Amino acid sequence: MQRQGSEDGSAVTRVRVAGGVLLVAHLALVAWITLRPLDVPWVSAANLRPFAGIRADLALDPETAARRIAAGLGLLAPLGVLLPMAGGRLAVSPLGSLLRTTAAGVLLSLGIELLQTGVPGQVVDIDSIMLNSLGVALAHLAVVPATRARFRRRAETRRRAAVLREDHAQGRTPTIPRVGIAP
C-alpha cells in the first residue's frame, strides 16, 4: 500500500514539475513576443475603449480579423492549462479553479500591458487584456476539468487495485462467530 501511494505521489510530482517548466518557458516566450521594441514608422494611440480594437479588426477582411482575434485569444491561452498543471491538485472546486486561473491570466495580461508602456513601438490595448483573459478561460474550460477527472479516475482505480492485491496477499480477515451472552 505504501508503494502505491508513492507511485501516485511521484506521478503528481512529475506533472507539477513538467507544468512548472512549461509555464516558465511559455512566459519567457510571451515576454519576448510582447516586450521587445518594434521598429515602426508610426504608432497608433493607446486603446482604452473596450471593444474598439475588436470592432476595428472586424472591419478588416475576414482572414485578417480572424488572425488578429485568434492571436489575442491564443497568446496567454496555454496558461489556462499550465497554471493548474503546475499547481498539481486534483481535488479542487472546478469553479474556484477557473476563477483563480482566469484571475491570474487577467493580472498577467494587465502587467504585460503596463510594461508595454515603456517599450518603443508597443501600445496599451484594453482589448488585448479581454482577449487574453478569454483565451485563458476557454483553454481552462476545454482541458482542465476533463483531465482532472481522468487523473482522479486513474488514481481511484489504482487505489482499488492496491486494496484488492493487499486483500489477496494476506487472505480474508478472520471473523469471530457471535456467541450469546450467558444470563
TrEMBL record:
Coiled-coil regions, chain positions: none
Domain VanZ-like: 24-142
Keywords: Membrane, Transmembrane, Transmembrane helix
UniProt-annotated stretches for the region Disordered: 164-183
UniProt KW Transmembrane keyword: yes
Domain of life from the UniProt record: Bacteria
Positions of transmembrane segments: 12-35, 69-86, 98-117, 129-151
The protein, known as: VanZ-like domain-containing protein
Source organism (scientific name): Streptomyces populi
Origin organism lineage: Bacteria, Bacillati, Actinomycetota, Actinomycetes, Kitasatosporales
